[in-house]
Here is the input.
Amino acid sequence: MSPRYIDMDLVNAYLARRSLDYLIGFGISPLLWRKLPGCQSAGRVQSAALALVCDREAEIEQFKAHEYWTVQTDFKIQSADPSNATCIPFCIKHLNSKKLDQLSIPSQEEAQAIEKMIHSSTFEVLGVKRSKIHKNPPLPYITSSLQQDAANKLHFTAGYTMKIAQNLYEGINLSSEETTGLITYIRTDGFHISDGAVEDIRSLVKERYGQKYVSEDIRKYLKKVKNAQEAHEAIRPTSIRRPPSSLVGILDDDSLKLYTLIWKRTMACQMEASRTEMIQVDVGIPEGEMNFHSTASKLDFKGYRAVYEDDQASPCIDSSEGDCVHECNFEALSKLMVAVTIPFLYPLSFSGYCRLFVII
Here is the structure.
């Protein structure tokens, strides 16, 4: 422990929250019970969250759905080896020298008219643009980000995630010894990791993947959440040298899945950035009547993605094809695909509890 002076700003913030709880929760809840039978309660956070949900529901009720169509065609990249041709989907972006937005093709008739134009037109490559992207690993988990990732990757509810995480924190009997906690405290808004744990993480990354996968400098994560108290570390394994494979048969399936997610994210936070080459290709009619656009990526160096995949990578072109994309011939395939990607445009919802948690 490292004793320090009491931060009175934090103390006063606590007193303010407690006062609001008394004023709103204790004061308004009995009134609601009398005036609105069946109403559960009111609260400092609960009432604000309910207002957000009601406002969004009002937007959804007032929203009018819009039908729209998208035109997509495949173009073939012909390399030096005819047997190595690759088809890449392109979406129409300009028509009659006008840029198209999401709702520019409102009917099937217009989409079919564009299809006929494409069949009777000759296309060529108008431009190829390359760019290099370095993407740093995601931050270590805090309570809210763990809930979000578990919902997205494992389809766990926030409550179920916290229940499993609590069990991992309380620990299990790995042998005849006393109970061993597998992860650090789960209710935290701090991204920092202790120096000793960071050293262990970097050492294990070097052993498993090599020195080039270890970040050049120690990654130190400062406060990112507004008004964060940072009383606890980020959520991480108590020992990074306890890999998920060592717990197979000891943890149940869901617990092992969540532990694996935490272990991988913790490993990734001290690894090198991934390096990706983005390739943007424009194909169209030279006169400018019609233009198609496509973007692909070529992963040059995995970096942290060797252990943790963030599911945000674009479709990739093979390295051999990516290197000669300037010299490729693009020719339209005989089959044009006119697709309705989303037949109607609807307003977005909160996407569940985790999204609402972030907004609050």
